[in-house]
């Protein structure tokens, strides 16, 4: 029997590869965040002592009901170290907090948010220096946070509260883009009760857009729309509004405002690949040999588009931190993640969907064709969405090992899981980083190629036949 004085181990279920994220209060709570703040503050103080940085961290959070208390707890933990804390408060979009990190010349940032997850979730994104964390950095925080007691509320940190950061962020965008008229483009804007509510619509109006707002108030319950803008069913209101209002396009954002989805003037949801193809037409121009970082799950047609424009596509493991790091390390023009993150080299790798929306709108305003005319010219994609299958760790390990042996002369790539590549398509098998599931995705040059790749796979792995065939049967051309 354990001694009566021993304490239960801290729950580390919410510590993922790229951030901390889980359900409240079992996986994410004030005690855990105070402990993480304590350890992160110690790391920052060590950087200062070593002469590697200034001592400032900016911290803020999203509009969830649990965010103010978790934000306060994180600051309480940070305050035990001799650092400078700039408290931006809650109800602040993630892009505005990253903007503030640059604006204040801060060494670090911390953001209390669960991004696109449901209302009862929350999390913490941290950044120390110019790069996002590696998985080992998050594991270190988890290990250290479980040790010792949380420091008392008083500490040696110098804390400054800045209540005006949202206004400063909006003003900066308006100054930057105010000289370019959007030609009274009609844009439907759907922040989904998330942190860009009241912000995106205001900025776009200030640069001459005709804005039709939807779900444009911050609501911690997300009562009007699910905060995940990567799921088509969550954007039904946006699609309908674009059609009903005869808008030039529509844009939807996620809960913390760092991802976007675009709907063209016909009400067609573009998806990240076609959005990127559209951006590279001129809103985010590519020069000869410019590098673009692509999510390993993106369509092969996006690689071809980049190459046709003179650029060079480099595949990256799925995940916000992985991609942002590679964009910065490679000096890339952009990074495109399938979930809706678009990282721009022109703003130091930040993923700011409002900035991206303004670039897209400014380019479209200079064209003499509707958005749909450009999209119609893009190749059709014959590809499944993620097929997620619950499976034990041992079974996933075996599946990945067997796939790694190759299949019918496929090229084997190991960027993230196993990607089997043929001249006419590919198949990806990877482990989910957030749940005990395997994720499978297939693409073919034609619908027939897609089915052939699916059959090759299920002939080898018959126990997955029902799930693969079901996904293929329900597929419509993109």
What does this structure look like?
With 478 residues, the chain is α/β, with parallel strands linked by helices. The protein has three domains: 20-163, Alpha-D-Glucose-1,6-Bisphosphate, subunit A, domain 3 (Alpha-D-Glucose-1,6-Bisphosphate, Chain A, domain 3, 3-Layer(aba) Sandwich), CATH 3.40.120.10; 168-376, Alpha-D-Glucose-1,6-Bisphosphate, Chain A, domain 3, CATH 3.40.120.10; 382-473, Alpha-D-phosphohexomutase, C-terminal domain (TATA-Binding Protein). It is 35% helix and 20% strand. The protein contains 15 helices and 20 strands. It has helices spanning 30-49, 67-78, 94-103, 135-145, 165-177, 200-206, 236-244, 271-283, 300-308, 320-330, 353-365, 371-376, 393-404, 447-460, 465-473; strands spanning 20-23, 56-61, 84-89, 108-112, 121-128, 158-161, 186-190, 210-213, 249-253, 260-263, 291-295, 312-316, 334-336, 342-344, 382-383, 387-390, 411-413, 418-422, 425-431, 437-444. The strands form four sheets. A six-stranded mixed sheet has the order 1-5-4-2-3-6, sandwiched between helices. Strands 15, 16, 17, 18, 19 and 20 form a six-stranded antiparallel sheet that branches. A four-stranded mixed sheet has the order 8-7-9-10, with helices on both faces. Strand 19 (425-431) and strand 20 (437-444) form a beta hairpin. Helix 1 runs parallel beside helix 2 (67-78) and helix 5 runs parallel beside helix 6 (200-206). The radius of gyration is 23 Å and the shape is globular. It starts with 19 loop residues before the first strand and ends in a 5-residue tail after the last helix. Residues 1-5 have low confidence and may be disordered.
């Amino acid at each position: 029997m354990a001694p009566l004085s021993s304490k239960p181990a801290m729950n580390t279920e919410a510590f993922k590869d790229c951030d901390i994220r889980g359900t409240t209060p079992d996986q994410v709570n004030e005690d855990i965040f105070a402990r993480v703040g304590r350890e992160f503050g110690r790391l920052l103080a060590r950087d200062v002592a070593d002469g590697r940085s200034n001592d400032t961290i900016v911290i803020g959070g999203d509009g969830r009901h649990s965010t103010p208390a978790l934000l306060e707890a994180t600051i309480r933990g940070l305050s035990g170290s001799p650092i400078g804390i700039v408290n931006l408060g809650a109800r602040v979009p993630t892009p505005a907090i990253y903007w503030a990190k640059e604006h204040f010349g801060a060494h670090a940032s911390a953001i209390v948010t669960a991004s696109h997850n449901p209302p009862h979730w929350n999390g913490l994104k941290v950044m120390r220096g110019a790069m996002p964390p590696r998985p080992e950095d998050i594991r270190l925080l988890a290990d250290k946070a479980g040790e010792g007691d949380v420091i008392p509320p008083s500490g040696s940190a110098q804390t400054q509260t800045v209540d005006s950061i949202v206004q400063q962020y909006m003003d900066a965008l308006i100054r930057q883009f105010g000289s370019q008229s959007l030609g009274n483009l009609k844009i439907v804007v759907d922040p989904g009760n998330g942190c860009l509510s009241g912000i995106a619509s205001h900025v776009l109006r200030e640069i001459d857009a005709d804005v039709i707002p939807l779900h444009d108030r911050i609501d911690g319950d997300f009562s009007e729309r699910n905060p995940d803008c990567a799921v088509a069913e969550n954007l039904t209101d946006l699609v309908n509004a674009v059609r009903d209002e005869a808008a030039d396009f529509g844009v939807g954002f996620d809960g913390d405002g760092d991802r976007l989805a675009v709907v063209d003037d016909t009400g067609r949801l573009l998806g990240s690949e076609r959005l990127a193809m559209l951006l590279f037409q001129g809103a985010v121009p590519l020069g000869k040999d410019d590098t673009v970082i692509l999510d390993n799950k993106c369509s092969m047609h996006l690689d071809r588009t980049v190459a046709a424009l003179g650029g060079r596509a480099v595949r990256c493991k799925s995940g916000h931190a992985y991609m942002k790091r590679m964009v910065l390390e490679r000096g890339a023009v952009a990074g495109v993640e399938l979930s809706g993150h678009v990282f721009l080299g022109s703003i130091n790798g930040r993923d700011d969907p409002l900035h991206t929306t303004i670039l897209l709108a400014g380019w479209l305003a200079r064209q003499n064709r509707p958005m749909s005319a450009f999209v119609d010219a893009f190749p059709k994609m014959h590809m499944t969405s993620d097929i997620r299958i619950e499976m034990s760790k041992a079974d996933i390990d075996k599946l990945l090992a067997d796939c790694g042996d190759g299949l019918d002369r496929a090229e084997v790539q190991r960027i993230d899981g196993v990607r089997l590549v043929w001249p006419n398509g590919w198949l990806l098998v990877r482990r989910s980083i957030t749940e005990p599931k395997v994720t499978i995705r297939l693409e073919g040059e034609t619908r027939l190629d897609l089915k052939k790749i699916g059959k090759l796979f299920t002939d080898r792995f018959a126990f997955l036949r029902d799930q693969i065939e079901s996904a293929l049967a329900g597929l419509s051309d993109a």
